[in-house]
Design goal:
It comes from Eiseniibacteriota bacterium. The chain has about 180 residues and is mainly β. The chain has a single domain, classed as Porin, CATH 2.40.160.20. Helix content is about 15%, strand content about 60%. The chain contains 1 helix and 10 strands. It has an 8-stranded antiparallel barrel with strand order 1-2-3-4-5-6-7-10. The longest helix has 24 residues. The N and C termini lie far apart (about 40 Å).
Length: about 180
């Protein structure tokens, strides 16, 4: 069952990527969006928000519909600094654009995650790969040939295992980014 879910998620990411590449080939409404943002874990209410960065390509598929492929790097400390979680999400999204400056939607992503335990704990580091989904939206404020892009999303990843108490935790997180959408 888990393998079938993974194959379905890979298929969805590939389908969204294919649509985005096909749309980019038409060269109408394509944007390169470098961004910086803040991310915060849902599980740890005492955790500080962390800064992270990303890069996305967004293209108009149809009037009122955009597709996006993105990659980012984020990290967070857990369990009082005993565990550092580093993550490289690669996502595919579909955004409905009822107005040119507002969008909302969601997508799927592949989340490559490394758990780095403090050396004093003598616990081997581990790496996992998961598929997750996200919902969100944003504003795109035109600035001539570019635009400011403000995006927020909630990422659902399901339960994760840890060798520290508690053994299971919720890795879901929020992100808010500010990017510069460069049209090409």
């Amino acid at each position: 069952m888990r393998f079938a879910t993974r194959r379905l998620a890979v298929g969805l990411v590939c389908a969204i990527a294919s649509l985005a590449v096909a749309g980019a080939a038409r060269a109408s409404g394509s944007e390169l969006i470098p961004s910086i943002g803040v991310t915060r874990s849902v599980h740890d209410s005492n955790a500080d928000a962390q800064v992270y960065g990303g890069l996305a390509v967004r293209t108009t598929m149809l009037p009122g519909l955009k597709a996006e492929i993105g990659a980012a790097y984020r990290s967070e400390d857990r369990n009082g600094g005993s565990l550092k979680v580093r993550q490289w999400p690669v996502t595919g999204s579909l955004w409905l654009t009822p107005l040119p400056v507002i969008y909302a939607g969601g997508g799927v992503g592949w989340y490559h995650t490394t758990f780095d335990y403090a050396p004093a704990l003598a616990i081997a580091n581990q790496t996992t790969e998961k598929f997750g989904v996200h919902l969100g939206g944003g504003l795109e404020v035109p600035l001539g040939p570019a635009a400011l892009d403000l995006n927020g999303r909630y990422v659902f990843l399901g339960t994760e295992q840890s060798q520290l108490p508690p053994q299971k935790f919720n890795p879901d997180f929020w992100t808010t980014t500010l990017g510069l959408a460069i049209r090409f």
